[in-house]
Write a structure and sequence with these properties.
single chain; alpha/beta; Rossmann fold; four-stranded parallel beta sheet; elongated
Length: 410
């Protein structure tokens, strides 16, 4: 008789992270595993003995469908860094004692770079003590910066939201084209500009698209940015610029640091970023004297499940399912990948790869996918992203708004 499955969610949520959770639950049920337990607030909550029985949360097919379209992390998330093995083995002993207590055969973690680091450490400690449990990572991040995989679940929906919202911002600004108007839009992306580049997909027969796009892969010049805006305003009334939150100067200083002296960091040492667009808007207004507006998408770009790409919802679900199926074949210490099989028509599949070669690695936008001037992206970038935003998976609507699944606590 098969044992039980444990699944957790970690890091910044996405519009489809719960679709992966639904895929895990459905596959584990179909493959005859015992119970499926969900960590409450990731590995941090699990260390405190917090978990739920997923069968008590998903009672029927409607609940499963609602879960797929529920934003944020249904089980709760965390940003918790496990120590290196031998630095604090008491933590690992506590985790493995809980795994024993719950008869866990398969442990799955849904997350990004830092979450894959957690899977790496759990797998390595299991190897050290001779555990036969399977540890498998399920990819998740709107940033699309996980190595090896073609792309990550969550990115396509965030890109769809960004492209759509950019169109709407430009449309709104054009209505006031009788006076000079500069919109500066800040998009998530610390070191990788995949999301910011996705704003280029707004361009089409009905939209001119953004005028400027700046990614963190290249050094950013504040003076050069103001000059670019000034030149554009000589021939047009409305300028729209998209900037990654993580753009930094040639000296290595994040632009957001000019806006605030705060050095707040998370458990992994990542600087908390905000204020890039607001700072640049103040500089442009001060130097050029034109009307400016700073727009920060913030959590909207990762929470907008109503704008989820159907491709993304389906791939997230399949990735969750693939984690259980990999473990069922005896595979451990890996992360599930999305493989692009074909572009026209778009098709993808799943594979697995050693998590040691993925954890803490980072995939950035290739230089030749950024234009020569460094203020836009190329057709190659657009052709890569466009298939991932296709389709609209209509959520269950009640009284005019989407219905979500709510976690039931005992």
């Amino acid at each position: 008789m098969k044992g039980n499955v444990l699944v957790g969610q970690s890091g910044g949520p996405t519009a489809v992270i719960n679709s992966s959770l639904a895929g895990v639950f459905k596959a584990a049920t179909e493959l005859g595993y015992g119970k499926v337990y969900g960590m409450r607030h990731g590995i941090q909550g699990f260390l405190q003995g917090k978990y739920v029985d997923m069968a008590e949360q998903i009672r029927n097919d409607l609940d499963l469908e609602l879960l797929k379209h529920t934003p944020s992390a249904f089980l709760g998330s965390c940003r918790y860094k496990l120590p290196e093995i031998d630095q604090d083995n008491a933590i690992f002993d506590r985790i493995f004692a809980l795994l024993d207590e719950l008869n866990i055969e398969v442990c799955i973690y849904i997350g990004g770079n830092d979450s894959m680091d957690t899977i790496r450490k759990l797998y390595d400690y299991g190897q050290k003590i001779g555990s036969t449990r399977k540890f498998v990572g399920c990819p998740k991040t709107i940033d699309n910066d996980l190595a090896i995989t073609d792309h990550t679940p969550g990115f396509g929906s965030a890109a769809k939201y960004i492209a759509t919202s950019t169109k709407e911002i430009i449309c709104d600004a054009v209505a006031f084209a009788n006076k000079k108007n500069v919109n500066i839009v800040e998009i998530m992306g610390r070191n990788a500009g995949w999301l910011t580049g996705a704003a280029a997909l707004s361009k089409g027969d009905d939209c001119v698209g953004p005028d400027l796009i700046y990614l963190p892969e290249l050094p950013f010049s504040i003076e050069g940015f103001v000059d670019e805006v000034k030149k554009l305003l000589e021939t047009k009334d409305v300028v729209t610029a998209m900037v990654s939150e993580g753009i930094k100067t040639a000296e290595g200083k994040y632009v957001c640091e000019y806006a605030s002296s705060s050095k707040t960091t998370d458990a992994f040492g990542h600087l908390q970023m905000s204020g890039t667009a607001a700072y640049l808007a103040s500089v442009v207004q001060g130097q050029l004297g034109c009307k400016t507006r700073a727009i920060e998408f913030s959590t909207l770009q990762r929470a907008a499940s109503h704008m989820a790409s159907k491709v993304d919802v389906d791939e997230a679900f399949n990735a969750g399912s693939a984690t259980v199926r990999a473990a069922d074949k005896g595979i451990s210490g890996v992360m599930v990948l999305i493989k692009r099989v074909n572009d026209n028509p778009y098709q993808s599949g799943n594979d697995v790869y050693d998590v040691h070669n993925i954890a803490n690695a980072e995939k950035v936008v290739p230089r030749d996918w950024i234009n020569e001037k460094g203020n836009g992206v190329t057709e190659q970038f657009i052709n890569y992203v466009r298939p991932l935003i296709q389709g609209y998976d209509v959520p269950v609507m009640v009284n005019g708004v989407p219905r979500h699944l709510v976690l039931k606590e005992k």
